[in-house]
Amino acid sequence: xxxxxxxxxxxxxxxxxxxxxxxxxxxxxxxxxxxxxxxxxxxxxxxxxxxxxxxxxxxxxxxxxxxxxxxxxxxxxxxxxxxxxxxxxxxxxxxxxxxxxxxxxxxxxxxxxxxxxxxxxxxxxxxxxxxxxxxxxxxx
Length: 140
Prior knowledge:
single chain, alpha/beta, 3-stranded parallel β-sheet, two-stranded parallel sheet
């Protein structure tokens, strides 16, 4: 199942109102840079803070447009800290219907997709994931 299938066609440029697929439910527009403090999205703590804000809105039944506008630097650690709790707390259907990523640069979009795919594998079978990771580290 691809990213678009799991979370909808979400990587849209533009404003919240132009993001496709949002339902008529209450909508929240969250800016990563506002929550993280600036355009340097590098720390796990900042990713966790963004995840908490998104989670709060989703639990309230809101559709969330998460804007990456103004992000100058985005690390894998930040992305993992942002999406792991969401993947653990919400079903695929909930995330598909309610979470929409906006204004991400193409390179950031690819990195987000890669990290989410990796997290999905980890959550699907943690033991197999850990074995594969250990094997890869042995080969390095």
